[in-house]
Specification:
178 residues, 3-stranded antiparallel beta sheet, two-stranded antiparallel ribbon, 50% helix
Length: 178
C-alpha cells in the first residue's frame, strides 16, 4: 500500500478507513482465486482477524464475496463478476467497430476474448473472408492451447503470474488400466 493510502487509513479520513480495508481484502482475494480463510486474509492484509471477519461477512451479504470449498475459505463472489460483465459489455460495444474494420482490412478473423482460468471466452468476433477461415464458437469456452490470443495474454503476465497460472492447471485424470 502506498504511503498516502496508508496515512489516510491510519487517520480514518472522512470515514474511508473501512473502504480502504475492504479494497485490501478484495485485492487479496483476487490474488487467490482458490480462496483464503479469514485467518489467511488477515495475514495477507495485516489486519486483525475480527476486523476481517466483519468486513468479509458484510461483503458476503452483498454477494461480493462467497464461501469457497468446505475448508472455510472465501473468494470473490458473483456480484463482482456481474458488475465486471456489465462493464465488459460496454467494452465490447466500444471495440466492435474497430474489430470489424480490422477484419475487413485484413480479411482475417478477429476475436475479442478473455482468459477465464484455463479457457478462452470469445466475447465478439468478425469472421474473415478467406477461403480457409476459423470460426470460434461464441459464448462457449475454448481450450487455451488452440488459441493464438493466449500467447498475447500470457505475454502481458510476469513470470510469477505465469507460474501461478500453471500451478492452477487442471490435472489430467489418470486412466484406469485393467
Amino acid at each position: 500500500m502506498d504511503k498516502q493510502n496508508e496515512e489516510a487509513e491510519r487517520r480514518g479520513d472522512g470515514g474511508i478507513q473501512v473502504i480502504a480495508r475492504t479494497g485490501r481484502i478484495m485485492r487479496a482475494l483476487s490474488a487467490h482465486p482458490q480462496g483464503l480463510s479469514l485467518g489467511g486474509i488477515a495475514l495477507e492484509v495485516n489486519l486483525p482477524r475480527s476486523t476481517v471477519q466483519r468486513i468479509v461477512y458484510a461483503l458476503e451479504k452483498e454477494n461480493m464475496v462467497e464461501r469457497g470449498d468446505s475448508s472455510g475459505s472465501f473468494r470473490i463472489g458473483p456480484a463482482l463478476s456481474q458488475m465486471l460483465y456489465q462493464t465488459q459489455a460496454d467494452v465490447v460495444s466500444v471495440l466492435r467497430p474497430h474489430l470489424e474494420r480490422l477484419s475487413l482490412q485484413h480479411r482475417e478473423t478477429v476475436c475479442l476474448s478473455r482468459l477465464n482460468g484455463w479457457q478462452i471466452e470469445v466475447l465478439e468476433q468478425f469472421v474473415g473472408e478467406q477461403p480457409l477461415r476459423i470460426v470460434v464458437p461464441m459464448g462457449m469456452p475454448v481450450p487455451f492451447i488452440i488459441c493464438a490470443d493466449v500467447k498475447a495474454l500470457l505475454a502481458r503476465m510476469d513470470d510469477e503470474q505465469i507460474e501461478a497460472w500453471i500451478e492452477e492447471a487442471p490435472q489430467p485424470k489418470a486412466s484406469k488400466s485393467k
